[in-house]
Structure formats: C-alpha cells, structure tokens
Design a protein that fits this description.
The protein has 411 residues and is α/β, with parallel strands linked by helices. The chain contains 17 helices and 13 strands.
Length: 411
C-alpha cells in the first residue's frame, strides 16, 4: 500500500478520539512507527504504547515543535526527519526532554513558523528555508542560483564544519535560530494544466515567458527573473487552483513537495531545473537551546545528527519509490498515479541556465544581496565559499553515498 494511503479507512473522528486520549504527539509518533496498512486497532495500540513510554517519567523540559503542514502520513512522502528527531530525542534523554509535535498547520504554517519560534510561541519548527527567509533573511544564503550542483553537494555542505561558519553561526547570531538538520532537494518548475498537452520539456527555451509562482526567497526571485520565468507571488492555498485553471503556468518547488502537499493532481510536468535549494529544515530557538543543561544540549545535537543521516537515506529512496521522480517513473508511485511526467533536462540545458542566471557568469544582479549576506556573515564571500565546499566531492557522487560528519566538531 502506498504511503499516501497509509491511514485510509480511519476516520477523522477516530483520530480525534485517540488524540483526546493519548495526545496528538503520541498518536503521530505511534503512527510514524507503523509500516504498511494501518488499522484503527493497530494505531490505537501504537499510540498507547508510545504514550506509556513517553510519560513514564516527568520531563525537565517540554518543547513545542511547530511542524507547519506535516503529519505522520505526508512525512512518509517527503522524509524531512522531524518525527525521527523528536522520538530519538525523547528516548536519548530518557524522558528529560518531551517534544510536543504540532503539525497540520495547527500552530504555525510555512511562512509563520520561523516568527513564532523567534517569539517563543513554539521552541522548534520545521519548514522550508525559502519560506522561512521572510522572518530570517540570512537563510537566503542557501539560494544563490546553481551554487549547489547536486543533492549530494547539499548534504556534503550541511555535514561540513564550514557550514557552522557560513550558515549556522550567522543564522544564530542574527536571528536567534539554531539550524539543526534539513532534507535536500533542488528546485525546479512544476507545470500545471497549460503544459498537460505539450510534449515533455527538453529545452530551456520552452519555459521562457511562462508565469510561475515564487516562494518567499529573494534570491530565488532573482534567478527566475534572469531565466525569463516571470515570478509572481501567489499564496500557497491559491497555487493549486492557479495551476489547475491555467492562471499560472507553473510553480517553483521540488518533487517531493509536489507529492506530500497533494499538488500532484494538478501538476502535469516536474521540470528538474535544479536552479537553487529546496531545503525543508528544522531549527530551534537558540535561547531555548542555550538554557539547556550541557548533557541535554549534547543530546539535541546527536539527535539532529541521527535525523540528518536518516533523511539523507530515506528521502533519496522515497523520491524514486514513493514520489516517482525517476525515468522511467516506477509503477504505483504518486507521480504514476497522477500522470506527472518528470522532465530531466540534458547537461547542456542546465549549463545554459547556469550561464544565464548564476553569480559565477552573471554577477551584477546578485551584488546587492551578496554584499548584504557577506556583511551579515562577518566578511566572507558567502557565494564563493559555499560554492567551493559544494565542489569538494566528485560531481557524480550519489547523495546516499555522502559521508556523514558531525558538523559542530571541527576535527
């Protein structure tokens, strides 16, 4: 049974009854631990077992984790690692830390989770760095066009101690956020009804002049303008109708986001433009982290490391076996079900896009933001230094083969 159907047959009323008895976090964590088809009795048993384990000891700290639109079902599609992190942290600390997972946009959404963490409404959050860049502009540092040549390069950078200096420390100093871990994909264009009857895209020029929804990233908007992709801000809840009705041609996001957000029924082609980061990350309040006892700080970092390793392997598998982002598309996947055609552009087309929009070949449109980010970092050339780290590994390295490292240790 596909991940998207895992909780089918269990009514909303049944789930609400279970959450009233055991709490939403125990139900979600219990559901995430199950495999295959899930029945109401098996979910109830898992929720009870999880509840009993989690409440065996009184916690020293209870941390609220605002997980934007995530839940146990869609975290089996986009493997962002949030539940694995929460479950491991509770077990690792033997209940000294209890994590209250609040997803389904119940306490914060993609655009608001970062601000609610900064305000202390929640202690941790999970959302894309691009949507979070509105409240934490330094996150734009990940979004220079074609700075990362592959998903492997993204993982390599996040594991590198250089990510402390170039990403994590400036984010903490400027915005009070501790960047813990992230899923890694590269953004493309998800084309709607206007491309349903067109041949699968093979040439970059076939996208020129199209009208495409853009997220909150300022640097992503620069890249889209340089590629003649007409970026327009459209609210997420209006994006699906816009694609269905042809009011917009496409939306910039990544493949598993299309699948987990139930966007695939209105997407006809997933064009793998790979032009900047798609990073669904989890961060926490630096003030909350700093107030923790040293052994609990160590536990948070180790659980973040475990989550990062989990995501690296699990999302790569899910992209092919659950989402269907492959050529050919595997039968039984979400893209197969909804007739989404992945369009993998040839190297010469990606090179053409890179020469049109990247800071390496077209530096002037980036100068203002590049100077701003460099100043916020403390003086490093953020684009060039991250670019260099991203190319420390061979270009054909598979993402699942990137060596994990504890990035907070310099040795």
């Amino acid at each position: 049974m596909k991940a998207s159907k895992t909780l089918s047959g269990i009514s909303r009323r049944d789930v609400l009854k279970l959450t009233g008895q055991y709490g939403i976090s125990s139900v979600v964590m219990g559901a995430a631990a199950l495999t295959g088809a899930v029945s109401l009795p098996s979910l109830a048993k898992a929720a009870e077992s999880t509840y009993t384990k989690r409440f065996a000891n009184e916690p020293k700290h209870t941390l609220k984790l605002g997980a934007s639109g995530f839940n146990a079902r869609n975290l089996l599609i986009e493997r962002a690692g949030v539940l694995e992190f929460a479950r491991d942290l509770e077990e690792r600390t033997e209940g000294e830390i209890r994590v209250e997972f609040i997803g389904d946009n119940q306490i914060c959404g993609q655009l608001s989770c970062v601000e609610k963490t900064q305000l202390g409404v929640v202690d941790m959050y999970s959302a894309s760095t691009q949507n979070s860049a509105g409240g934490a502009p330094y996150l734009n540092v990940l979004d220079y066009a074609y700075m990362f040549p592959s998903r492997a390069a993204q993982y390599h950078f996040l594991y590198s101690p250089e990510s402390q200096r170039l990403l994590r420390d400036p984010l903490e100093q400027r915005h009070g956020l501790k960047f813990l871990f992230s899923h890694c994909e590269l953004r493309g264009l998800q084309m709607g009804s206007t491309f349903a009857d067109r041949p699968t895209v093979t040439k970059l020029e076939e996208l020129f002049g199209t009208k495409n929804r853009v997220t909150g990233t300022q640097l992503g908007r620069i890249a889209m303008q340089l590629l003649n992709l007409n970026p327009v801000p459209v609210a997420w809840e209006e994006t699906l109708d816009g694609l269905r009705q042809g009011l917009i041609d496409g939306a910039e996001t990544w493949a598993s986001a299309v699948a987990y957000a139930n966007m695939s029924p209105v997407v006809s082609q997933a064009v793998d433009l790979k032009f900047f980061c798609g990073t669904e990350h989890t961060s926490m309040s630096a003030a909350v982290f700093d107030a923790m006892e040293p052994h609990l700080q160590d536990a948070i970092m180790e659980s973040a490391y475990l989550a990062q390793v989990h995501v690296q392997a699990a999302n790569e598998a899910a992209l092919v076996k659950t989402v269907g982002f492959s050529d050919p598309v595997l039968p039984g996947t979400i893209f197969d079900r909804d007739n989404v055609r992945p369009a993998f552009l040839a190297d010469d087309q990606i090179r053409m896009a890179e020469e049109m929009c990247s800071p390496e070949f077209n530096p002037s449109p980036w100068e203002q933001w590049r100077e701003r980010l460099n100043n916020w970092q403390g003086g490093a050339d953020t684009y060039q230094e991250i670019y260099n780290v991203a190319r420390e590994i061979p270009v054909d390295t598979l993402p699942e083969n990137v060596e994990p490292r504890r990035w907070w240790r310099s040795a």
